[in-house]
Amino acid sequence: MGNVYDTDRKQRLPFATIFIREIKQGVACDSTGSYSIPSLCAGTYTIDCSSVGFTRSTVHLRIAKDLTQNFYLDPDVTTIGEVVVREKKVDERTLISQSHAELAGENLAQVRGTTLGESLKGMAGVYALQSGPSIFKPVIHGLHSNRVLIFNNGVRQEGQQWGSEHAPEIDPFIATKLTVVKGASSVQYGSDAIGGVILVEPAPLPDQSSVHGEFNLMGGSNNRMGVTSGILQGALNKKLSGLRWRVQGTYRRAGNARTPHYFIENTGFSEGNFSATLGYVRKNYGAETYYSEFNTKLGIFSGTHAESITDITAAIERARPLTPSYFSYRIARPYQQVMHQLFKTNAYYIFNNNSRVDVIFARQQNVRSEYDYVPLTGNLNPELYLRLITHTVDAIYKHKAFKKYGGCVGVSGITQGNVRRYQLLIPNFRNYGAGIFYIGRWTGDRLTLEAGVRYDYRWLRAYTVDNNSAQIITPTWNFQNVTETIGSSYTFTDHFSWSVNIGTAWRAPTVNELLSSGVHQSAVSFEIGNPNLHSERAYNIATSLHYQTSRFHGELGLYSNTINGYIFLKPDLQYIHTVRGAYPTFTYTQVDARFRGMDVTASYQLHDSLSVSAKASMLYAWNKTIHDYLQLIPSNRYEATVRYGFGDRVFFRQLYCSAGILYVEKQTRVPANSDYTVPPQAYMLVNFNTGFSVPVGKQQLIISFTANNLVNTAYRDYMDRFRYFTDEPGRNFMLRARVTF
Amino acid sequence: MTFLSKLLKTNFPPVFSKSSPRVSYHGSRTCLYCFLLSAVILSSCNHDERNVAPTVLNEGLTTAQLQLVNDMDASDTPWAQWEQLLDNTGKPLPVDVSQATLALKANASYTARIFLLDKTQMPVYNVSEEVKDRANYHLFFYQPLPTSQPLAIPNNYPADKNDLYPAPIPTPIPAGDPLALTVSITDHDNSLQQYPVGLETKFITGSKGTGWLRVVLRHQPSLKDGSFAPGDTDMDVGFNVVIQ
Lengths: 741, 244
Hints:
The complex is a heterodimer of chains A (about 750) and B (about 240). Chain A is built from 5 helices and 41 strands. Chain A is mainly beta and about 750 residues long. In chain A, the strands form 5 sheets. Chain A has a 22-stranded antiparallel beta barrel. In chain A, a hairpin with a 3-residue loop joins β19 and β20. In chain B, β4 and β5 form a beta hairpin. In chain B, about 20% of the residues lie in helices and about 30% in strands. Chain B has 2 domains: about 45 residues; about 180 residues, no CATH class. The interface between A and B is large, with 81 and 76 residues.
């Protein structure tokens, strides 16, 4: 008997396999990572311990009497592709029929040091909406901003996420796993989950009493970025046993990014984040307190400052921006300064009949200041200041299972207060929201059926000034919706399974869609809100097929998401004249839209060291009301990778190399008369990766080297809002070092 | 670490000592109390949003005034004003062109100055002083219309999107005789190349006629090279011109 541990995360590893070569028999560990082999004859045995994503550990043992043998497994640096958890036993998700993908282990390590949006954009069906080289917003199946929910450590992230240039205020280093739930999922996660949900999940707090952690250091050549991040954690023992803690911090700094031909002026950033967790765990209850702070100062490319259509048409005509090309870490106007604080406390209690209650309370404060060019009046205030304070409370009760049937009931509440200063882009507001849901699941041998229903209510009051009377007015809205979901998954054989999910989601119009009225600087548009908007409702049907053998892994996902009352900015084909020139006006309008697409991933192990993998993301979006395409929808993209693992060579352990190409089509499905120019051309990028680990004392030092855009291709991307003004960054070498102790 | 454990020990002995069932019950209750207490403290929300801060525009520029003096007759001082005020939410009101007509004498020479004002501030802010202080970043362009000369201010919009001349200039410009007006810039910035600025100008008129004058201020930080292209537009206004 004994236990199996993950050396990386310093915790027990569930469901590993123990195999005794001599008698050709094996056992599986249970969910706590422990195993026992009763009644084994005395003798000498060779025992293998293995688990997916970890290197095999082998011991030779002389067994005479009962003994305890623990195994410590290292994560496998050569694991390829996205790890998709399909084992029924370990699937702790509330809805398992929903399409999802995870980024964890060494796949996550390969994108360490980048922002959340940039980390996720390699996954099938996930894209990024960019504003220059440093601002990335995740896009799931063509939807983004306030149609994608992000859960940061179990708490719904609430910043000014409606803005297309407002990146999520999250440090990806807090997470050991990033999960993307694709498709409408309001029943479990609440309003706004129209495109999908992103879960940023830290590892559980450690249960070993020693102090240990992880240290990361990385550098990038293109914008001379430096990143350092560390985690320190431990558990107390003796009288304080049950008390666990973790502190974590990250600092990132970069200067101007460089395209193949010039530097992009004022695109540096500096970011400093930290978090601290204190947890207390007992056999059947526990509590945790968490605080995190995210601080960033992001330069905005000064060449994107266009004050009129003349400026933007002239910028499009130019081969390269007129801004001077040089390297600097200095961040001048225009820039954004954002601070996000999150305080969370949660507790759980497990009853004797295995039912469980979880309660989470969180308070978030998001302070965003946006500084434009130094104005004519010499005023040094920001142009825009927004402070949003959000309180959320969630409680979930997972009831006692009745034979094959289990389920949970949940309630959630939210209140937000927003305060603005300087410009009036969005007004002050207060909102209250409440929801209640129930999800049930019947699990058979091969078939799983699940269904859920939810009711939500939302109240919103804006505080603003009437444009004529100068009196404070308080327009108020109420929204309520019932959402439902139903799904099933069926396992045909050990290799082949199929799942289908029908989900619904809703979203209340946000205050900018209801009331905004003004020039959107970086979009060179005059945006007009519509106070009569009603809720958006999404009906999503998604199905996925999984096929897995020892050498082949394939997954095919198909989806169709119909959104009734899809809110978008419709060009009015009119101009408003201001002192700076004429701006085209856009009004928030509702139409019925449809997003259909396909995500494919496949990998094949040609022999022990050589493997190939491929990914494709295809998306077709359609405006059903006016029978036209929708704007700013990502084009189809395809990726192919070849990997070679060298195994252990001299003192390099688990040495591997991989090379990949990414091909992004030109977006040809765009509506007429809605853009200043045609979408950029298709492009192809070559990427290269290598990594290995070296033992340093008792620890493993993991080194990896990445070359993005290896052949220095000059290209522009349709999903970058700065595509009118500048090329994307050119070649970038990144070196990463990680040591766990 | 030792400090922390000491602190915890002294403050909460019943919670974290022994793990007998009774103590663990207390532990769970204390846990719950701590949780509820922190929830209550942190959720006591204020209502700051009810105090609406005034709209302050950093880049306000509401008014452009042309003030001319006839070089031969100091009592002939034509004056014109283009103005666009904002409503209480900062949204631009319709342009006021009631005083935007410049009446000049034929075959005359005028010394002209342009004044830019921000009337959203109290007292009214003189933006042209700021432009003068940062002359190296700014350049005015004066475009008499109609003209037979190449345009000083490019107007390269596609045919279907040309509703873009500032009021009161009509779009498109009706066919007619070119306006007999020449505007030349007389002031210079203090850069090495002494590029023109355009706060001070000379207006030279020819034969009688009517037309328009478009005035654009370009903001060209670290980019000024005497041409129109770099930077962006700070101001784009128009005037009626009558030469009699």
